[in-house]
Each structure stands twice: as C-alpha cells, then as structure tokens.
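Hi again,

Forgot to attach this to my earlier email, sorry! This is the prediction with flavin-adenine dinucleotide bound. I've pasted everything inline since the attachment limit keeps bouncing my files.
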Amino acid sequence: MIPREFEYHAPKSVQDALGLLAQLGDEAKLLAGGHSLLPMMKMRFAQPGHLIDLGRIAELKGIREENGTIRVGAMTTENELIWSKLLQDKCPLLVEGARLISDPQVRYKGTIGGDISHGDPGNDHPALMLALGASFVLRSAAGERVVPADGFFVGTYDTLMKPDEIMTEIRIPVPAPGTGYCYAKLKRKVGDFATAAAAVTLRIRGGAVQDVAIALTNVGPTPLKARAAEDSLRGKPLSDASIVAAAGLAMNICDPAADQRGDAEYKTAMAGEMTQRALHTARERAGR
Amino acid sequence: MAASTDTLERESKLQGLGSSRLRKEDARFIRGRGTYVDDIKLPGMLFGAMVRSPYAHARIKSIDKSKALAVPGVVAVLTADDLKPVKLHWMPTLGGDVQAVLADKKVCFQMQEVAMVIAGDRYSAADGAELVEVDYEELPAIVDPHKSMTPDAPIIREDIADKDNVGHGPRTHPNHIFTWEAGDKAGVDATFAGAEVTVREEILNPRVHPCPLETCGCVASFDKPTGQLTVYLTSQAPHLVRTVVAMLSGIPESKIRIVGGDIGGGFGNKVPVYPGYVVAIVASIVTGVPIKWIESRIDNISTTGFARDYHGVGELAADKDGRIKALRFTALADHGAFNSHVSATKLPAGLFSICTGSYAIPKAYARVDAVYTNKAPGGVAYRCSLRVTEAVYLIERMIDVLAQKLGLDKAEIRRRNFVKAEQFPYTTALGWTLDSGNYHGALDKVLKAVDYDGLRKEQAEKRARGELMGIGISTFTEIVGAGPTKVCDILGIGLFDSCDIRVNPTGSAIARLGTMSQGQGHATTYAQIIATELGLSSDEIQIEEGDTDKAPYGAGTWGSRSTPVGGAAAAMAARKIRAKAQKIAAHLLEVGEGDLEWEVDRFKVKGNPSQAKTMKDIAMAAHTSNLPDGMEKGLDATEYYDPPNMTFPFGAYVCVVDIDRHTGEPKVRRFYALDDCGTRINPMIIEGQIHGGLTEAFAVAFGQAIPFDENGNHLGNSLMDYFLPTAVETPHWETDHTVTPSPHHPIGAKGVAESPHVGGIPCFSNAVVDAFAHLGVTHMDMPHTSYRVWQQCKALGLNER
Ligand SMILES: Cc1cc2nc3c(=O)[nH]c(=O)nc-3n(C[C@H](O)[C@H](O)[C@H](O)COP(=O)(O)OP(=O)(O)OC[C@H]3O[C@@H](n4cnc5c(N)ncnc54)[C@H](O)[C@@H]3O)c2cc1C
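Structure tokens for the complex follow:
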C-alpha cells in the first residue's frame, strides 16, 4: 500500500501544466482529487514517475452560466457541485448524482474532471454527462478542442483524450425548464460504486415525450447511452407499460462484468430496474 | 432516614457497580492521544515489509534477493533459509500444529509469508519487497473443504503428511486435522429412528473476518548488552505471547517484555502469534536494532485470524407438538493451511457443544471434522467464544425449520422447549451446567415490547398483497468465561486470570490484571467492581493491563472472559483487602472483628454507628506502626481466579425486515434486543457493547464473506468489497435487559460483549428466511446481500412486475 517513488509538481497555470506534460511525457500523470489515481498507485497498478498536481490552478475551478450553457471547471469538487445554487436551480440532476458518489471524504477531494477523465465505467459522472448532453473542453499545447460526451468514452480507462491534453471545462446546455430528471443508483453501501445506475432527463409536452435521454452506469466497458430505449419513448405518451418496455431495451445493451456486486444477469436486471425507477421519478418531476 | 440518604449519597459518589460512569479511556482516544503499536517510534528503528505468495498452492523453486538488496535503504532480506539456523522457520501454533514462519519450500495459501525485507524506512522496504524474485511452480489448490479428504486430493501439508496425529487424535487423511465428537450417538440415532418428525438442513457459516480498525503489527526491540527483548505488539493475550516467544527463542521468559498498549479492536483477530511478529523478533535479535512490522488492511483480511468457515448439518427429532427429543449437529470445519485455531487442548472444536442452546433437549450428538485447505489459517475469531456463534446459529436456525415443518409459531415452539427457570442449574445433554436463566420471562417481555401479534398480523396482510416482510426471533444462550482450568488450557496453561491491587496510604489504588482491553472499557469497569468492594472512589482506582512486566499472569481478553474471570479476580482480590481492613478497623476501634459491619465505604461498630473507620482511614493506618501484632504492613492483595464454571448469558431478540423483491435489498426496520448478563457493572458500557456486537452481527448476516475463486485467489479482500457497515447502513438498535445473576460468580456478573454477535446473526437470518417462509423456503445461507436475496426472489418468480 505504498506507491513507488515519484516527483511531485504543482504548477500554477494550465500553461505551466501543459509545459510539464510536454516535457515529462509518458512518465507523468495529472493529479486531481487523487481518489482514483492514488489508490491505483498504492496498489502499484499505476507507477508514474511524476505527478502534476492541478490543485493550485485557479482557472480550473468554478461554476458559471454563459449563454444557456453551464460551465464547470474540471477541478470543481463533488461537494462544490452539491453546494452550488446555480446547479441546484438549473441542473439538479448533477447535484443528485454527485450526492450519490462515494462518501463525504471522497466528495471533498474528488473532482468532476477527474471522475470523467479516469474512464472508469463505475464512475457516475460519465452517464450523467451523456444524459445531460454535455461536452468537454480539452486543451493541449497545440490548442483547444471541444468534444461531446457522447462518443468520448471508448473503453475501460480509455477515452478520446490524448496524453498531452488536460480537460479544463465541462459544458452542459442548461436543461429546458420543466425537464424531469433522476439518477437512480443501486449500491451496496455508502462509499460503493454502482451495482447499476440510470441517469434520465425527460421532457413531456402535450402528454407525449418530447425528448428523453437515458444513460447507464457500470453495466458495460463504458457508460452506455440507451438509444433504442430512448427512441421507443419519443413522441408517445409515457405509460407504465412503455417504461417497462424501454427498460427491457436498455437491458439489451448491457454487458456488465461479474464481481462481488453480482453476476451479469443481476446487474443487467438492476440496470432495467434503475431505468424504470429513474423514468418514473423523472415523469413525476417533469413539467407538462 | 437521614442516615440512609447519607449512605446513598456516599454510595453514588463511589461510582461503583451499576453506575453508568463515563469511560476513562475516551479522554485520550477522542483527543487522538491513544498509543497504538504504529505510534511507537524507537531510535534506529528499521521497517519490515512482507513478500507474500501470489499463489494458493505452489512449490518455491528459488528466491533471488539481489535486486531487492540493491534498493537504497534495504538492509536485509530474510527467507526461511535464513531462519533455519536459529530454528525459527517454523513455529508451534495455539492449536497443537506447527506453522511456517516464512514459507519453507512451498506455499499453502495465497498471500502466505515468503520473505521479509528489512529497510531503513517503510518506503524502501516496500520497494524492496516488490523486487524479491520468487520462482514458483504452481500446484492444484483445494478451496472447498468438501474436497479436502477425497482419495486423490493434493496433499497440502507435506511436512506432516506421515503424522497420524497433530495434537487432537487420529487422522484418517493427510488433509485431515481432527475429528471431535460429543454426546450419545447411539441413543440419538435410536430417537431419530422412532421420531414423529425430523428435520434436516445444511447450514453454512461462511468464512468472515472481524476486521479490527487497527491491523496487526509489532515493534520488536532486542537489546544485545542486556539480552532483554521488548515487543510492542497488537495482542489480546500478551502473557501467552510472552510464553510462546520464550519457548520459541530460548530467551528466558523473565527477559521478555510484551507491551500491549492501546489496541484498536481485536475481536479474536489478535489472539494468535503471527509470522510477522516472529520474523520481526528474529530480525531484531540478529541486527540488534528495533524492527517495526505493520500489516496493511489487505494483509489483515487475507492472512490473519479469520472466523467461521463451518459447513454444518443440523438435524432435530421431535414429537408432533414440537417438543425436541434429540439433536444431531455436525460440521466440516475449514481451518485453512495450518491449524492455528486457538483452542483449549481438550476442546479442539471450542465450545461447539453449547449447540443445545436454551432448550431442554434430552439427547444430543455433535461432531466436527476439521480439514486443511489452501486458505489462510485461523477460525476462532470474531466476537465469539470459540465456535459458539456457529453452534448457536445452527440451533436457532433449526428450531425455526422445525416450527415451519409443524406449522407452529416460531415463538411458541421456543416456549415449549425452553429450560424452565426452576430447572437451573441445568445440565445439558452435552454436559454443560447452565448456571442461571429465565428464558420464558425474557421472551415474553420482548414479544410484548414489539407487539409480536400485531407484527404477525401486519405480515399476513403484506403477504396477501405479495410483499415480503420477515420476523426473526433468536433466544440464545451463550457460554463465556473460559475457564475452569480442569477443562480449559492453552499450551498447557490454565485459563485462570489474575488481579493485583495495591492501596496507597491516601486511599487511592492501582490494580493490574492479566486481561487486555481492546476497547471494552476495562479501565472504567474494573475500577467500579473494586470501588464497590473497597468503598473507594472508582475515580481514584487506576487500572493497568497489557505490560507483562507489570501485570500478573493471565490469559488475556477474548471469549468474553474478562468480567467472568478477570472481574472475579478483581472482586476476590478486593475482598482479601477488605478482610485485612476489617482486622485493622477492629484494632483501631478496639472492638472484636465480629462487632463490625460494613457500610458502603467504612466499617462501623454495630449499634454504635458513630464509631467507624473509613477505608481511607484504614489505608493510612495500614502504612503506620499502629497495626495488630504481627500484621504485615500495606494493603495489597493478589488473586489468581480459577472459575468453578463458565457463565451463561442469554437473551431474546426480535428483528423485522422488509425485502424489496425487485432489487433484493433487505432493510432491517426494527431490532429489539434484550440481554441478560447477570449483574450489570456499567449499563452504558453494556449498551455500547450490545450496539457494537449487533452491528457486527448485521455485517456478517448481510454482507461479509471472504470469497475465493477455484484456484484459491482472493476475490474481495479490501474494504471496497469487504462489508464494514457505516452509520448509514446500520439499523437503529433498541435495547432492554433482565437481570439473572450468576450464582457462582463473586458479583453475579456474566460476560456480555459477544452475546449480541452470537445471538444477532441467527436473528437476522431467521428474519430473512421468515420473509419467504410462506413460500416454502426453509433456509438461505448468509450473507444476505441484495444479489443473493434477489436470486431467491427470482427462483420464486417474485421479481417480476
Ligand atoms: C472509496 C471510493 C469510492 C468511490 N466511489 C465512487 C462512486 O460511487 N462514483 C464515482 O463516480 N466515483 C467514485 N469514486 C472515485 C472518485 O469519485 C474519484 O475522485 C474520481 O473517480 C476521480 O477524480 P479525482 O479528482 O479524484 O481524480 P484523480 O484520481 O486525481 O485522477 C483520476 C485520473 O484522471 C486523470 N485526470 C484528472 N483530472 C484530469 C484533467 N483535468 N484532465 C485530464 N486528466 C485528468 C488523472 O491523471 C488520473 O488518471 C470513488 C473513490 C473511492 C476512493
């Protein structure tokens, strides 16, 4: 439980951090809250020679709204998300999701950018980002690009982000007023990752589903966007029967790995159950 | 009237027996001022890091230390070959077997100790450990104890393959450790053959681990010039460790000092002597500098004293009214790769023979077969007096199974079988004499408190709606306080315990005991016993344990033995002092001893209460020349207490659980626990112990297990998977009590700390099974995780909408 020796760097700006990344190359790892990286280093699964701590870079912090988009600095912690009045008012799904991440200790240190960058299908933010239609700002010495969440997650611990890039910001289109939402997460105890979870946003207009997004956590090598389930609901009234049918379609795309939380059958069934619960709650919360 | 108010006031000032005085230990713990082993820092200290086996069963072909030795800061790499010259590569266990200190030619469980890297700090030690290159040849592993004794089973312990006995009778297979039996087999068989009803169930107590907050570790410090060995060590039984170390090392026991310090939870995990301790001691003897070795959490869960792994079969024979006529319980015990199962020489299966429980069962037979597997050694840990949890789990589950078979209510069947209050002391079919009890009274009080009939009515309504609600009952009898030396010993040493009290001239006192607190609050409660016996304020009575240079010899704290044995020693030592004090008082008051009577804190002359001497007066007098002729100075006494019998605490618990049939999540809605531990020393501490024990019972019932794959690889040995409930998951506990004193204990007290664990686990399981009982389910094995409960729902088609 002791990591290999490493050098610690604490740049004050994204520019300096990028400079260090370029200079140190593969030997370096970015350090955010450390709650995914440090356990891996202590188990010696990860053995970086250099850690570049992003914790002192002020420009990576903060939550603001600009032209209908919520911009969240990558180094914003889970608790800062939970405490944000702006998010509580305009993007309560993110608050609900963050509250279900791990335990208070982790939520004081863990960051939204780290949670997304890590590429762990057990993490909650990736599915939340899919459900919210978010995009990510990635900066490198060569410049900046904005990548949509949908398509960003490639495989377990694998994303579209390149080793010379830093995620600086998360952009979330402000959900339309009256958007129903829910993050339904089944876990064994406080501090546990999801057995299965479902993130839902839902707009109902004139008695029919105008738009819906459904994304699943920890039931595949990446977070999963349940497209067929979404399609089955769009344009039609939402009924108990259509919810059950949509959950069935969501289950079809699950490919979970068995572990102590359960086998593939149970996790798939729980993805269906969480999808149903999230849709029911989102329906109750949606304006008509 | 005035006199009695005054007496009461003086009595309450003592904060003696029955007072909920605050724990004396907490002032330092809540300030972060505890001193745990890892807080010990000695000049020049080096650190040891263990190299552990990645395989469950493999031959060691070679070990290359060169890369590790090249790491800056690494001083030495020790392997079995290095320990051989001092004959310390193997050690005796507390179970009559031997255990490899460092793997000798082969490894027999995953994460077994293979080498220790010694370095200047723990970081370079860890770096070095990673670079020790061990060449293994993997062998087939045995994980399932049912496969240990098949004809073609690989032999796990080649070192003892041709021994026909490893301390507990004949062996029938190289992987067989012992077979233990008790009771009247023929009589039981005959009763079963002619019985109106019989029931049988296979019941598993899975392998679990108590997971104390502080892991195991030590700092060993050998001083070459004096030949003195001091070891700071996480031990619940420091004196036993000292004896083992003396036997192992050849150092005179008088030159060995074991210091317990503050222990961050033990639960039986800290009774055995572990390889890490021994290697650290050897390394210190060789290098002449102190060596620290501290386990990681994963090391702790994977390699040190686990609990249970008992694969039981329960059978009851009864008449059609549910009166039990005979009991037949057997268990296959998985002891892992070495038999380090702490057990009294005559009781290799511990106290499993308490399995007749709270019931008057005329005939009983019990048998345990213990075998080796390729898993870590241990077996008796976890808030359980040596296999009592397994025994009580079997009887408390089986009586429910019988009730279901007969269509009887689960409370009613217990009433029909209880030992009656007037039958005590009651000798069971397996030979234990239950000291005292009132089982009917306890159960009735609990059923009334929870409105049992109302709960059953609610359950019937819910069942009609397809909802799952379970009501669990457990009416257990514990056996604690090992124990009478004629039946109980470890390594030949009787399980008495001791107390040495010295009263100072100004009337304060210090008492030292052979037990060892690990959070139980001994410094608080022992002082209360002595306060009441001596009439001195508990605030002025200092309690010390755990330093073998100071405390008298004792077997330590485990098996809820501190109050039954150590507490009795404290009371008896205090009584010796009071007897001397009475002589001094008579001398000072110039009356006969028989003219005096004791009142709270003083001896007074009968019929002339103004003539009195307080214990404080007497303490001072004892240090002057004004003593009866020929009397020794001082006011001290030592007692070595050999209990005449075990004590038998009991309780009645009820649990209500609701189950989500779509996710399988069980939710404990209510838990009501009535405990009877005889005389209550400190009600607040008792309640704390009950809360802790119930929480650990909840953990075992609903989540804990140490899972392996078929090759013996661990599948869940960190806190990510190993279930330690937080305040969020833990149910609300309602506690209650009755008081039925032990007739043979000097103050009538019994142990209590293990009762809630022993009695709680079956109560939870009974509730979960009861939720499915109307659908024909008679048993479900633990842990009742959502996943496993969902599988039961699915098998019954309940998960569908
Ligand atoms: C006990 C426990 C339980 C947990 N439970 C949950 C849970 O239920 N749900 C959940 O979602 N998470 C959970 N986590 C993970 C936790 O939320 C982590 O904090 C999170 O996954 C990573 O964020 P971090 O800020 O700690 O990143 P770090 O651990 O510091 O970094 C993680 C990875 O991301 C990279 N990285 C970090 N920031 C950036 C950036 N700005 N740009 C590019 N790369 C970056 C790092 O180089 C590293 O590879 C748990 C963790 C623990 C210890």
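DSSP finds eleven helices and 14 strands in chain A. The mean pLDDT of chain A is 97.

That should be everything now.

G.
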